[in-house]
């Protein structure tokens, strides 16, 4: 058995590392919470998408490093799945996010490419390059985990839709140019069958965005109210009443490798915990040592499981391991930050960037670690999915 990556992958890695060493902005390297909402901007009046992050995303796109698996005109270089895995590994091991706003490049662009018409597909490059900021209008006050319960209504009137309703937890709504919005177009149809997706320009009259300030002090998401918002019928993505397929649809080329980011982030958080213990003289405490060793064991098991899932994904485009990895990495992230807060004692709660340990990183990461167990499907919902779809257990 030969456990090595092979020359093409080694060359790919070397080129990437050289690029990152030369170009990665210091602000990106300083972001500890990889690509997350918690640490970008919104401190001291900085925009939630700072200028350096916009320039960095555009540079990655222009050099074919934004989504390596895509072709050149979409910010990639036709990388193989294994090369993409290496890319995600290197980026996350360095704590360098490629973007601080995920909806455009990670969700909207792949969906437009898969389900959009010709003119909608042309919106994809700017979404990936970050020139256009998108938000995703899925969740509503009565439709979160139960997304099929969404009630924002779109009524076709000639060649326009008229939209009324409310979204909530809409990340980046206050800076977005467009919303990828899930609306109910047939209230009489069974719940999953009456949903459509509209592209809505955020400056359309009738849209009100009310930012929601988080526990951490930042405001990265908002409530969005739609009152008689007129949207051209040509902004419908895919077929009318076929929106559920899009919700279930494309997270595209990288779904098979996304776990790497989460596992690498856990590894670097664990390294930082060890450094914290060294600085604070806690490395001789048997209880602390045991907890760090347990965490190390868990992160290593998740990496091994991720590789196994990656192999099945590359072969069959599906991997039950991935359902478990979302649940396990977000829950383990929470317990690592909990441990960090415990080790810091009273110092842990100091959020102040100048006085807090590592710029208040532990307390902000601690708050954010809870959000990670909710965003993209809560841990309870992941457990339901594993029980029903992976283990084949009855619903109740
Ligand atoms: C950081 C972050 C960013 C987000 N960004 C966006 C965005 O850009 N656009 C957008 O549309 N939404 C966004 N969301 C919203 C997110 O999708 C929802 O919060 C999530 O789907 C949960 O929905 P909810 O908040 O309504 O909670 P609910 O669905 O009301 O759930 C409340 C609790 O009940 C549990 N629960 C619900 N149903 C079940 C069940 N069947 N079995 C067991 N337990 C259950 C849940 O796990 C949870 O603990 C974001 C959320 C976060 C945290």
Estimate what percentage of residues fall within beta strands: 5-15%
**Mean of all residue-level pLDDT scores:** 88
The CATH architecture classification of the largest domain is: Up-down Bundle
Please count the beta strands (DSSP E, at least 2 residues each): 8
SSE series: HHHHHHHEEEEEEEEHHHHHH
Q: How far apart are the first and last residues' alpha carbons, in Å?
A: 45 Å
Structural class: alpha+beta
List all distinct small molecules, including ions and cofactors, that are bound in this structure.
flavin-adenine dinucleotide
Poorly predicted sequence stretches spanning 5 or more consecutive residues: 33-38, 250-254
Specify Rg, calculated over alpha carbons: 22 Å
Q: Largest sheet, if any?
A: 4 strands, mixed
Number of separate domains:
3
Please sum up the structure shown.
With 396 residues, this protein is an alpha+beta fold.
Descriptive account of the structure:
The protein is of the alpha+beta class and 396 residues long. The chain has three domains: 7-100, Butyryl-Coa Dehydrogenase, subunit A, domain 1 (Orthogonal Bundle); 134-243, Beta Barrel (Butyryl-CoA Dehydrogenase, subunit A, domain 2); 252-390, Butyryl-CoA Dehydrogenase, subunit A, domain 3 (Up-down Bundle). The protein has helices spanning 7-23, 26-30, 51-62, 81-93, 102-115, 118-121, 124-129, 243-247, 258-279, 286-316, 321-344, 361-372, 379-390, and strands at residues 134-137, 153-157, 160-171, 178-184, 195-201, 207-212, 221-232, 236-237. The strands form two sheets. Strands 1-4-5-8 form a four-stranded mixed beta sheet. β6 and β7 (221-232) form a beta hairpin. α11 (321-344) runs antiparallel to α12. Residues 33-38 and 250-254 have low confidence and may be disordered. Bound molecules: flavin-adenine dinucleotide. Flavin-adenine dinucleotide is lined by residues 37, 103, 135-139, 144-145, 169-171, 221, 371, 374-375, 378, 380-381, 384.
């Amino acid at each position: 058995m030969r456990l090595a990556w092979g020359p093409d992958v080694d060359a790919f890695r070397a080129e990437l590392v050289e690029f990152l060493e030369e170009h990665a902005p210091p602000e990106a390297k300083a972001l500890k919470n990889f690509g997350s909402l918690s640490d970008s901007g919104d401190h001291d009046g900085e925009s939630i998408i700072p200028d350096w992050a916009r320039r960095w995303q555009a540079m990655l796109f222009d050099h074919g490093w934004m989504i390596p698996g895509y072709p050149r005109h979409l910010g990639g270089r036709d990388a193989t799945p294994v090369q993409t895995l290496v890319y995600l590994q290197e980026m996350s091991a360095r704590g360098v996010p490629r973007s601080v706003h995920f909806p455009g490049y990670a969700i909207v662009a792949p969906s437009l490419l898969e389900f959009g018409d010709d003119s909608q597909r042309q919106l994809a490059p700017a979404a990936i390059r970050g020139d256009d900021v998108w938000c995703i209008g899925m969740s509503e006050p009565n439709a979160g985990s139960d997304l099929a319960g969404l009630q924002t209504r779109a009524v076709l009137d000639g060649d326009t839709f008229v939209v009324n309703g409310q979204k909530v937890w809409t990340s980046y709504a206050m800076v977005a140019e467009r919303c990828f919005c899930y609306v109910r177009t047939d209230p009489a149809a069974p719940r999953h069958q009456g949903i459509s997706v509209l592209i809505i320009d955020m400056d359309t009259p009738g849209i009100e965005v009310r930012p929601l300030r988080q526990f951490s002090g930042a405001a990265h998401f908002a409530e969005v109210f739609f009152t008689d918002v007129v949207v051209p019928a040509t902004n419908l993505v895919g077929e009318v009443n076929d929106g559920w397929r899009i919700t279930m649809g494309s997270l595209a080329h990288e779904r098979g490798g996304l776990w790497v980011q989460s596992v690498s982030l856990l590894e670097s958080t664990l390294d930082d915990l060890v450094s914290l213990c060294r600085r604070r003289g806690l490395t001789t405490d048997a209880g602390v040592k045991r907890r760090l060793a347990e965490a190390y064991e868990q992160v290593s098991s998740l990496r091994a499981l991720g590789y196994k899932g990656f192999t099945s994904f590359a072969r069959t485009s599906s991997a039950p391991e991935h359902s478990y990895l979302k649940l396990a990495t977000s829950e383990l992230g929470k317990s690592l930050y909990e441990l960090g807060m415990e080790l810091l004692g009273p110092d842990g709660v100091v959020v102040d960037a100048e006085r807090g340990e590592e710029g208040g990183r532990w307390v902000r990461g601690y708050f954010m670690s809870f959000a990670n167990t909710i965003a993209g499907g809560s841990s309870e919902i992941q457990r339901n999915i594993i029980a029903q779809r992976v283990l084949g257990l009855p619903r109740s």
